Amino acid sequence: MVKNIAVIRGDGIGPEIVNEAIKVLDKVAQAYGHTFNYTDVDMGGCAIDKYGDPLPVSELQKCVESDSVLLGAVGGNKWNDVPGHMRPEKGLLRLRAGMGVYSNNRPAKIWPQLADASPLKKSIVEQGIDFIIVRELIGGIYFGEHKTEGDTAVDVLRYSESEIERIGRIGFETARKRNKKLCSVEKSNVLDSSRLWKNVMHRLSAEYPDIELSDMLVDNCAMQIVKNPAQFDVVVTENMFGDILSDEASMITGSIGMIPSSSLGATTCGLYEPIHGSAPDIAGKDVANPIGTILSAAMMLRFSFDMPNEADAIENAVSKYLDAGYRTADIMCEGMTLVGCKQCGDLIVSFLTKE
Ligand code: NAD
What we know:
Largest sheet: 10 strands, mixed
Number of strands: 14
Bound molecules: nicotinamide-adenine-dinucleotide
CATH topology of the largest domain: Isopropylmalate Dehydrogenase
Helix content: 40-55%
Number of helices: 12
């Protein structure tokens, strides 16, 4: 198969981790006889420097016309003082909206080899950590009106029933393919938008009698993720709550550097990115963990290109790499072999075989 992939390296560690994911994709192409064509897209701080715009329309167009987009990360201290509408992260929000990818899927799964890297007690980790956060991605407070007048700033949180319904359905459908438990997370004791969220989820529930729906307030969910993560199968929530909870969930699995994500809308053209940011503190040092990006590439093969065997091959190569005792600094434990970003990518390539 021939697939055209738009590649956004971005800022900070973005170029380093994306390069490793491309090495792995090239090995998959070679092993399975596919052709992956890559088109470079500038977005984020690097695009501000080049064009004075975090995502020029021509760059967005390249993404929309591709079969899928692979993204590293954007942002950094250099652009902290640019006006809000020009910040690197604005490019990302415009990309998500421009591609119409309303459903962000973030797995929180502990690799057995990394049990010691979790900050949670062994007794909690042993109960298992394997859940998915389905996050609404192009609505809510990140996309509402933002304004500052004098000493007052306003950010608007708005959701319509149809926006909640389409992500709610993804939540139910995701649970249907797993253990059939869906936890809807909101703040209905305070927010109108959350009361609407809860009502829509319960209305939808009648169409999915095989799925056990529960409600949880977001503050309680933050606590339950560290107290008893084994209780979760699929969590569905709005944009900002999902952003925060998925970072928390990633940490209990060992490192934010390990977690991939997929974002999809009405078509198979998806956006695939690790859940972390551009990590300016470690950029350019060849110490970043590229596995979140490599696993995002695997998700691209699975969900957008219908290549499940190829996706399995990448995930198995990551597992073999961990079994062999290699660790980047973020997940380093006693007795393991410390490797850098490039070496991690090379080793995963060397463990990748046709399944
Ligand atoms: P961050 O995720 O970049 O970093 C948080 C911590 O995790 C840092 O200590 C970092 O070194 C570490 N870390 C992150 N990824 C890692 C990896 N692959 N390997 C090893 N360690 C890793 O979050 P931040 O520091 O709050 O944000 C930095 C910049 O990234 C900001 O400009 C922010 O706006 C931006 N950001 C971008 C995205 C994105 O592009 N999707 C997401 C979040 C934050």
